[in-house]
Recover the amino acids of this structure.
């Protein structure tokens, strides 16, 4: 949630979506900046070969479609993965407001810079040729709870897909890391890292 | 080259770099927006395990370090891969100019949005689990010359590293794609795509 940005934005229009309903489809005119209030939206792209892949899953507080402020049309679908409420800050109004408000324009730029840094980190992780390295890197990036536990936001299957891995490769890598003492699984979607049991 | 942005920027300071010389190192105070005038700079990150990897190679006309306008320090090294000249638009001056010039601030945002879209496309490509798919996707993204040839900007080795592949995997995938009639190599770093020789 980029509260500094949201505080400066012109008023939003609220949209309610049923599960499976699309907020927009690739090729639709750009709506504007979207903030998820509740539920979850998936950004989905269809490849040249017709393969659909989830680029991103936006949870409450997340913003998306910021690049659509600068482009006439959307490049992916946004589909509700659960009953959802979103706030849409219309592109034209936001552009108009920013044209006389340098603080707002700069705040949009800062928000995009933060997204760019995050996206680069994701690309770097994906460029790691070994599944175990990708997995460890992604797990290290999760916030550590008290006691050092790290909790997956979703399922291992969702993480595998985010990392460009098959489930099988993910489970094999997990088992290998566990045997090497580099992580320990504890209940559903909770891991401890760097255990390094040398016994 | 984002000429629209560069035209709005406050004056740059020129820096000349010898091959191997660093413009900045991770942890250094953020310099500002950099435009490559000649030569080439590599952005290099060192992982937790001490492995160095090239994140990006910036060629003449390319800009980089735009995220450093919003952060106090650099997160990677920028090293000249050849004798180079760069223009540095200092962060503090750029921020000051943008604070009273909404057109400049918005142009910076637009530039960041374009980088974000490109970085996302890179991450999507890297999420493809098969080497041949990544390679085809990267080759399709190159501009087609007259006659349909596509020319690599660098070496196959550099492309392999950008795609998170070993050279061996890249050459195997190339051979497989060629046998399947999906591409044809023609001289150094030139390919034709979609030949689909069904003979």
């Amino acid at each position: 949630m980029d509260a500094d940005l949201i505080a400066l934005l012109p008023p939003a229009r609220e949209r309610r979506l049923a599960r499976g309903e699309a907020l927009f489809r690739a090729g639709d005119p750009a709506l504007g900046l979207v903030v998820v209030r509740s539920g979850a939206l998936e950004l989905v792209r269809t490849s040249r070969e017709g393969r659909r892949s989830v680029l991103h899953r936006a949870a409450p507080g997340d913003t998306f479609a910021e690049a659509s402020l600068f482009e006439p049309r959307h490049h992916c679908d946004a589909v509700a993965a659960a009953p959802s409420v979103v706030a849409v800050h219309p592109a034209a109004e936001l552009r108009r407001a920013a044209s006389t408000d340098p603080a707002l324009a700069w705040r949009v730029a800062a928000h995009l810079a933060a997204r760019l840094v995050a996206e680069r980190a994701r690309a770097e992780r994906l460029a790691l040729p070994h599944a175990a390295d990708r997995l460890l890197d992604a797990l290290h990036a999760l916030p550590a709870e008290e006691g050092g536990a790290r909790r997956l936001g979703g399922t291992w299957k969702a993480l595998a897909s985010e990392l460009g891995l098959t489930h099988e490769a993910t489970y094999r890598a997990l088992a290998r890391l566990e045997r090497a003492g580099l992580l320990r699984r504890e209940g559903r979607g909770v891991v401890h890292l760097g255990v390094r049991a040398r016994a």
Notes: Chain A has two domains: 3-126, 131-193. DSSP finds six helices and eleven strands in chain A. Residues 180 and 196 of chain A are 7 Å apart (CA to CA). The domain at 3-126 of chain A is CATH 2.60.120.10 (Jelly Rolls).
